[in-house]
Amino acid sequence: MASNISVFASRTVAFSTRLLSGKSNNIACRAFSVSTTNESSRTPIGFIGLGNMGNHMAKNLHKQGYPLVVNDVYPEASAELQDLGATVVDTPAEVADKVDRIITMLPSSPNVIEVYSGTGGIFETVKTGCLLIDSSTIDPTVAQEVAGMADKKGALYMDAPVSGGVNAARDGVLTFMVGAKTDEFEAAKEILQYLGKNIVNTGPVGTGQAAKICNNMMLAISMIGVSETMNLGMRLGLDPKMLASILNTSSGRCWASDTYNPVPGVLEGVPSSNDYKGGLVTHTILYLEYLKVYHQVMIIKEDLVQP
Fold it and tell me: Among all residues, which ones are annotated catalytic?
């Protein structure tokens, strides 16, 4: 994992350098027409990656009347959706063969590369004009590379990472940061409006991931602050629930405290109250890496603005 994080940091810095110097990749994507809501509601959507987030997102699409073709590397992850009527297939290539719109929600950059371009991947059978929405949190440069590969296949890829956590995915109130051209963004928004309450066009491909990094850096800082604060309070004899209630009605209130509190038992339905399952530990490690990336980017920026 450490090697993957190191690769993430170096590639993110390279992407940031291009953005700050005005040399970001300009992926030439094909236009994608926006269909009417009634038409789209009857058109199957592919969904690949049915983990903690993807499972809820796919079920919300089902609730809106979308027929689903789904795939996950763990067959058992598809069982619930299969019971709801979704078509379950064995590979991403089979998904791409059956639909012209696909959402992917995967753990990391290597997973995205494998699902899109590996053996049995999407690009083996993707249709011309297929809309590919990747909601994974990955390297910005990987998003650009996948977009380039999609363009060669005549398909349209955009990065659309999310924020809000598992509960927001369940409730359909995620924030989406979408890297796409304006007209292409509207095609994605037609679908994403059923999964989130804030769908933002951040700019060209890769900028969705850049926005997510910035958000996660802020979350990392606040999560560390909440963790230290709660630890101090408990050491001083304060009840953690009582302390959290004070923080959440005072100037110290933040998302890490009132929605994703890191102390077990303070909130229900969050990783800290589920033996930290659901990604909090791994995400915290990545957030700390984002902080390192930030400092490197600031150094690059200072070098660029100097006369």
Answer: 212
